[in-house]
Design goal:
267 residues; eight-stranded mixed sheet; 23% strand
Length: 267
């Protein structure tokens, strides 16, 4: 199964993930609370940006967080240790080859993971195996095709398209948010419910201007600069203008919109 994190594993990307998690915490996690004593699998925890939020919202749940990257797991362990979190166990593991018995978990949480996998349906089926009957799975994904903004800019739109194309070339799908319902249904889950979460940003929401428009979305697009230019997907002048225009949407006359999709289903 192909899996490639198109954004890379740099320190800059780790900071972006923390900014993203903190900014979107209320939007994405407001209703994600697990009962005391329940056993929760977080699949693809990365550097622990979402793990901290999960653990703090459900302090009496027992969370097992897995990832294929040893470096990311090391950062996640350090983060939770610094935050004084004691209800999370980290373990190296592959979603497609889970080292757990059938029906080992009461709940599963997956955030910004399926978009990087070439076989997301198969990943969901692997996760379903370790979920108890009646247990819940929560899946959160974005959709880069949902981004729109003002002032409009052809170069900025093309820059976003370049990221979408790069993710497709790596085997992923940057528009997977809109496909969560059929994906979960085809993997055999029941009672599938999808809730879209719209991010709207203008200068009256300064925390969102900094946390989302600048540090989450535009930083994500800017992060693939080298590969875009090396592949000749845009010339350097147009690319630089596209990034500049994206940052410009965070200005006094700018607005930015984006949609996330959160799905909850049961086995």
């Amino acid at each position: 199964m192909q899996r490639n994190y198109v954004h890379g594993y740099s320190e800059r990307e780790a900071r972006r993930l923390f900014d993203q998690a903190n900014t979107l915490s209320q939007l994405l996690h407001a209703d994600t609370v697990y009962p005391p004593g329940s056993r929760v699998l977080e699949a693809g925890c990365g550097v622990g940006a979402q793990t901290v939020i999960l653990a703090k919202k459900s302090p009496m749940a027992k969370i097992v967080s897995i990832d294929v990257s040893p470096d990311s797991l090391a950062q996640a362990r350090k983060l939770t240790r610094n935050e004084g979190i004691e209800n999370v166990t980290f373990q190296p593991a592959d979603i497609f080859d889970l080292p757990f018995e059938d029906e080992s978990f009461d709940h599963i949480f997956v955030c910004f993971v399926l978009e990087h996998l070439s076989e997301p349906r198969e990943a969901l089926m692997c996760l379903k195996r370790v979920l108890r009957k009646g247990g819940s799975i929560t899946v959160i994904e974005g959709d880069h095709g949902s981004a729109y903004f003002s002032p409009e800019s052809a170069e900025a739109s093309r820059a976003i398209d370049c990221l979408i194309e790069l993710q497709e070339l790596s085997g992923g799908n940057a528009k997977i948010g809109r496909q969560l319902y059929p994906l979960l249904k085809s993997a055999g889950f029941e009672d599938v419910r999808v809730s879209p979460g719209m991010v709207y940003v203008d200068e009256s929401r300064p925390a969102w201007v900094e946390g989302f428009t600048k540090r989450t979305f535009t930083a994500m697009v800017e992060g693939v600069s080298q590969e875009v230019l090396e592949r000749g997907m845009m010339d350097e002048r147009a690319w630089r203008k596209g990034i500049e225009d994206l940052y410009g949407t965070a200005g006094p006359d700018g607005t930015f919109c984006y949609c996330f999709f959160k799905s909850v289903a049961r086995r």
